[in-house]
Amino acid sequence: MSIHFLLLYSCFIQFVWGQLPPYTGQFGVGTIDIEVPINPRNISNYTFEETGEPVFLLETVLFSTYYPIDSDIESSHPQRPWIPRPLDLVAEGLSVYVNSSNSSISTDFLTTAIQSLAGSINISAIVDAPILDSAAPFPVLVFSHGDVALRAWYSQFCGDLASHGFVVAAVEHRDGSAAATQVRRSDGTTKNVTYLLPDTISSVTNVTDITLAQRDFRQAEVVEVIKVLQNITSGEGTAIRSANTRDEGETLDGWNGRLDLSTLLVGGHSFGAASALQTLSEAPNGTVPAQGAILLDPGKQSGPLNTDVHIPILMADSEEWSSIPFNFYGREHFDVLKDIAEDAPDETGGGWFMTLLGTAHTTITDPSFLGGQFSAFFANPEFNATLNSSDALAQYIRVSTEFFHLVKNGTKDGVLAAEVTHPNFNEANETAVDDTDQNITRYWEIHVAPDSSQSETNDTEPEDSPNDTDNEDEEGDAMRHVVQYVNILVMSLICIFINL
């Protein structure tokens, strides 16, 4: 038996037996899937070459809520699978993407691989539990997934934020950037949306135009999701439950007044960060009444980035994203992000740009938690992540919590209270580094921070939450882990067959 077989089989065993870890905050976490119909409309005029049907027809919006609950609650509902059903649809979408890179993997084989390796993994949150009864309503984040991803693949980040006293609405985008998703209409019919390839669209002359159309579609979805959240916290939870084609939400009637939409943030990862950044042109007084944005690794191949920002922004790069040069429309991507943060007006809160050391582009996603050696197969060969997933998540949650506090109260805590330590990546201001708490500098390089005189500062660790008291195409290169994920699924399944 070869060493290669043993290594692959070991990875398989770790992954099959692996489950996502519990959340780290003081609260339990509930989750509700919500899909409701909206007024159907075309976001663009693109049609599919083969069928003539519209590519960007918006009919419903789908999102998963993660929210604080009593930690003693148990649910009679089954846990939510980490890989959404139907599995063969997810396999079809992944195979479309993988086979676009001159591979040849059948949907049937990939379905079997996914079922064998990930079919038993569940999200840690409790389905349809009552939201926590607290003295104050909960701040809200509307979060967008990256390219070739699914909303469920960020369940650790979203759920952990909820365990610290926030509500997160993780949107499943139907713009063709998700690996696969199913639209469920109110009449009982469905429409499958798999990963979108530009060569399936009529009259495409510039792939960037498709990317921008996808971002427009995503922005329209975010607007509609915010409307649903407004309706829920205004006492219309029962009506939303009745309209929900996902057959969940029996506890939504208890959400009246539970959401603090005066502290509404938008955010996302990779392509999701780029699309969230686009929505800021409508904030805070337009169709997106967001008061801040959390942007993780804004996309390098997600089209030109919006620079029209009038609210506080937190941009947190992984070390992989900051350290590897990338020509972004004639400039370094790092420099573009730095300019966006620096140009965010101090009088409206300003901008932060920082790097979490030791992290890869995929560290924020769930696969990094699913088994020791398995996670190594997701790595970019050009970059070696050194910070373990739990420590990395703790830092992402820390700085996100501090940013929520800034938006709500105007106070700067912890990392946000620190000055610039590294004007550029790996280029230290030694005096600033020496003056900054080592519990910050061991994890973070801070590249941009607003003038500290603009708001009150507080160097203490933040509390869990205000409620504690009661260039041009898709993001395929950026999300390369999907191909590696599929390859490992396939290789591991082959190993099982060999061993039979």
From TrEMBL:
E.C. no: 3.1.1.47
- Biased composition of type Acidic residues is found at 458-474
Under the GO molecular function aspect, what terms does this record hold?
1-alkyl-2-acetylglycerophosphocholine esterase activity
- Where does the secretion signal sit in this chain? 1-18
Q: What is this protein called?
A: Putative phospholipase
Query: Matching InterPro entries, A to Z?
Result: AB_hydrolase_fold (IPR029058), PAF_acetylhydro_eukaryote (IPR016715)
Question: Per UniProt, which keywords does this protein have?
Answer: Hydrolase, Lipid degradation, Lipid metabolism, Signal
Similarity comment: Belongs to the serine esterase family.
Task: Name the segments for region: Disordered.
Answer: 448-474
| Alphabetized Pfam families for the sequence | PAF-AH_p_II
Into which EC class is this enzyme placed? hydrolase
Q: Which Gene3D superfamilies does the annotation name?
A: alpha/beta hydrolase
Source species of the chain: Patellaria atrata CBS 101060
Keyword ATP-binding (UniProt): no
Active-site positions, per UniProt? S270, D297, H361
A biological process (GO) of this protein is: lipid catabolic process
Under catalytic activity, the entry for this protein gives:
a 1-O-alkyl-2-acetyl-sn-glycero-3-phosphocholine + H2O = a 1-O-alkyl-sn-glycero-3-phosphocholine + acetate + H(+)
Q: Which PANTHER family match?
A: PHOSPHOLIPASE-RELATED, PLATELET-ACTIVATING FACTOR ACETYLHYDROLASE
Origin, by domain of life? Eukaryota
